[in-house]
Amino acid sequence: MRQTSVAVLGLLGVGSFLLLGRGSMGGGFADDVAFMERHTPIVLLRDGDAAVAVAPAYQGRVMTSTFDRQAGPSFGWINRPVIEKGVLSGEQAQGQLQDHIHVFGGEERFWLGPEGGQFAFYFKPGTEFDFADWRVPAVIDTEPFELVDSRSDSVAFRRDCELTNYSGQVFKMGIERTVRLIDRAGAAQLVGGPLADGVRMVGYQTDNRLTNQGDQAWSPETGLPSIWILGMFNPTPRTVVVVPIEPGAEAELGPKVNAAYFGEVPADYLKVSDDTLFFRGDGTRRGKIGVGPKRAKGVAGSYDADSQTLTIVICTQQPAPHGYVNSMWEHQQDPYSGDVINSYNDGSPEPGAPPLGPFYELETSSPAAALQPGETLRHVQKTLHFSGGEAELDGIAKNLLGVTLAEIKRQF
After folding, report:
1. pLDDT in tens, 237-247
2. How far apart are CA 180 and CA 367, in angstroms?
3. Directed axis angle between helix 390-401 and helix 184-191, to 10°?
4. With a threshold of 0.90, does the pTM exceed it?
């Protein structure tokens, strides 16, 4: 989630936020899919009872998923009012949030970094780093990706585009994105052992690729892009985000967490141990955390104790000779000191204002892409939802997050 969206209140007024704040109000996955199909094409991937809903018009976005497509829950946060209204023209969007971003929701979307700084893609050259000048590029906001292949368990997209960063550097990019289901056997491999019979699950991976289609190398001196994958999920009062981190001294590994995106996160929303971060995902207080490349382990997750649902996000870890892009909304001293893994908890941007969703986010980023002409950077993210008894889920949490469910539940 962006760093300074609180400024939108002064620009648009609280009433405009009501267009955002209803979110997914359906009765489950089947109801969400039926609603979306009335407004945009949906590709439904299936593996037995499990299903994943993908929207080609929303850049191949995974909108939601479930372990039971007939009667199961809907894991993605769906912003029904914005979907129902559709993409607004420039004139229609004037004075509304859609002039800056169409917040369709969805539990896994493709974006590009960096967001802010001298190499940003969300600010035109010469503008200020404030919300009045911030706009999501149309290619990752309102323009569809081309559907190039569709099967029962996978769907593939591509898009060629040209973007100019804040410093005026032009990038000719080729984007490829494939969404593929992860079956029960594949999930067992990731978990490190067979799943108990009582565990229900849905999983998918997205294979995201960025290619330099220009005739010049992308250089750190004029800016580097990155692949940025973000997911919006439905919050509950007992949802806790868990991010394993490498233990060790700050002098060697850097800080354990960046918790200053929206001001420091208070102790009743963030707990930091030697090797784990615990962060509330309840959608009641706005805050964001990030983990740098020397601390990140390529995995994060969340546990909702009310529904007994464990969510896991795993991303590729690869060499990052040029670091990770910094998305802070400012002229940066170190534009390649960004985070690998982030989590955002939604809430009121200011006293008396409604939340944006509410929702919570899990995010991962690729390294900065210093690509030669024709060269491609790949970033793969896997998302899995497990539901079952706590005794059955506990081993999954320990194997992938390094903590028990009891440890997660007692943090807040």
Report:
1. 999 999 999 99
2. 23
3. 60
4. yes
